[in-house]
Amino acid sequence: MTDEEREAAIIADGKSYIAGSAGHATLEAVPTLSAAATQMSFAAAANQFNVLTRFGTEGANAVSIDDRARATAERRNEFESIFIRDGMISIDSNGGIRVIVEYLHAVEVIRAKAAALGYGAQSQTVPITEVPGGYVGRFGGNDIYAAAR
Amino acid sequence: MPPPASQAFEVHGEIRAKYEALGGAAGPLGLPQTDETASPDGVGRFNHFERGSIYWTPRTGPMMVGGTVRDRWAASGWELGPLGYPVQDQHRMVLRGPLPLVEWCRFENGLIAGDARGGWPVPMALQTPTETLGRIAQPALLTYAELGAIFGARINAQFVASPDNVALRAGVELTGASNWKYGFWASTSRSIGFRLHGFHDNGSAPDTNFVIDIGLRFELVWGPSLTEPTTKTLVAVLDSLNVGHDGGLALAQVYASVESGILHTFYESDNNPHDPNHPEVPSGAIFVAELPTGANAITGEIDILDVLITASGDLQILVNPLTPPQQALSQVSFSFLRQLAVQNVLNSLT
After folding, report:
1. Pairing relation of β-strands B231-248 and B208-221?
2. Which is more confident, A81 or A129?
3. Shortest CB distance from A134 goes to which of B11, B16, B31?
4. Which of A83, A97, B9, B158 is 20 to 30 Å apart from A140, CA to CA?
5. Residue B237, SS3 per DSSP
6. Burial, A2: exposed, middle or buried (Cβ in 10 Å; 0-12, 13-18, 19+)?
7. pLDDT per residue over B6-64, tens digit each?
8. Which chain B residue has its CA at the smallest distance from A141's CA?
9. Residue A144: pLDDT band by 50, 70, 90 thresholds?
């Protein structure tokens, strides 16, 4: 398959996906992601999340159909690969993918490290949070970092 | 290289504070790759990160070094090598375009410069006298004795001009170089000490002899600039001053007067610049010389990077050892050429 054929296939895939979910809801009709998550099918929600995260609410109507279709196809592949790998997937309120297994793994190693250093659970000052490339747990004046896998 | 996912690493204390100040995991260093670890010399501590390290000692503070500069430092033996610990965060030349080319880090005993684009060799440019002597070029410097002569003459001129009956005796004693002092963003430089002897003529009464102990640091300063300045000003900063009894008739008033006169040389009572021609010279410092840096904010060329007081008390000008960005690599020693040019400027001061 040539690059041009591959590109055309990706866009066609995205268009098909958008068409398949269009009957459930449209972006303009769904003001918030939380509303989308409760009212739409997973497929429609995924498409909705994709549009918002890729283009933002204002930009969603400004991009071309092809761009939207391409981004949709890429996003769907991303969702699928994470789901196949981890068996679950979570999407936060901003449309970002939060990989539960990765997060739980980070929590595990950070807490193990904290315990090894003698920091009790009560010394954890904020929840373990995501940082670029990984996660951090803060225990008083001590920070423990774990990389995302 | 990202750290292994099965491990977690702790950052705390001053290193944590510097890491956070540099942007934490979102900054230039990335995620930690080690826990805070004691240096082999038992003095310092460090964390390695994905793209650099932060080294801390009580006498230098937490400093960041990374990329090819860190690689070159590691090859020289890290902090146990001739350069010692970093004394300033690694930084890059500020250009008028998006691509900084030269980055460098100053250490206790020298400097390493690298090409920020990566993939270019980091030459033998540690610029310690040990490293350069007989192989590349003599480092551009004013010796401790030359500095003593310069400042002895300068203070003597002040005494000669004074209407009081005070004078300095010939000769300046060199009392040694101090160590680096703690700083969060940059360590406070070594200072070098001078001792001068003088007297106050009390007429028919015995003279009042006094001794002046003065400590000076040397720094480069410059006025506001959005890009790397083309000229920087070498200043001497007053680090310490003590005037005491040295025999003869003891008169506290004389000691206080001499001390006040010297302080007035460094500090203006109204906080105005000493020299209207050099408003960049801060209070507490005096102008020594203008140094053309050779910086070109468009091409990325630069000759002078920084200054350093060596452990033996010499003032060394740290030049850029790298080949100019627009030229192919050659056997030309740009350290040699630049050090010669800078030495000519320094020679004009002696």
Report:
1. antiparallel
2. A129
3. B31
4. A97
5. strand
6. exposed
7. 689 999 999 999 999 999 999 999 999 999 999 999 999 999 999 999 999 999 999 99
8. B12
9. very high
Strand A142-147 and strand B192-200: pairing?
A: unpaired
Count of residues in chain B: 350
Read off the tokens for B144.
């401790």
User: What is the chain B residue with the closest CA to A112?
Assistant: B8
Two structure tokens written together for B56: 């801390």
What are the residues facing B309 on neighbouring strands? B315
Write out the two tokens for B296.
Answer: 């070109």
Neighbouring CB atoms inside 10 A of A58's CB total 7
Are B6 and A109 an interchain contact pair (Cβ–Cβ within 8 Å)?
yes
Nearest alpha-carbon partner for B267 in B301, B237, B310, B235: B237
Q: Kindly report the nearest CA distance between residue B30 and chain A, in angstroms.
A: 8
User: Which amino acid, A144?
Assistant: I
Q: How far is A110 from chain B (nearest CA, A)?
A: 6
d(CA A1, CA B206): 105
Distance between CA atoms of residues B129 and B141, nearest Å: 10
Closest-CA residue of B relative to A130 is: B25
d(C-alpha A125, C-alpha B34), whole Å: 22
CB neighbour burial string for B17-34, b if at least 16 within 10 angstroms, e if fewer: bbbeebebbebebbbbbe
- Tell me which H or E stretch contains B276: none
3-state secondary structure B201-231: CCCCCCCEEEEEEEEEEEEEECCCCCCCCCE
What's the ipTM? 0.79
Of A110, A134, A137, the CB nearest to B25: A134
* CA atoms of B158 and A28, how far apart (whole Å): 81
Lateral strand order in the sheet of B91-92: B91-92, B102-107, B110-115
Q: How much is the pLDDT for B189?
A: 96
Distance from CA of B66 to the nearest CA of A (A): 18
Task: Report how far apart, in Å, the C-alpha atoms of A137 and of each of A103, A113, B99, B188, B203 are.
Answer: 12, 10, 35, 34, 75
- Pair of tokens at residue B329: 């690599």
Closest-CA residue to B103 (of B336, B306, B349, B347): B306
CA distance B25 to chain A (A): 6
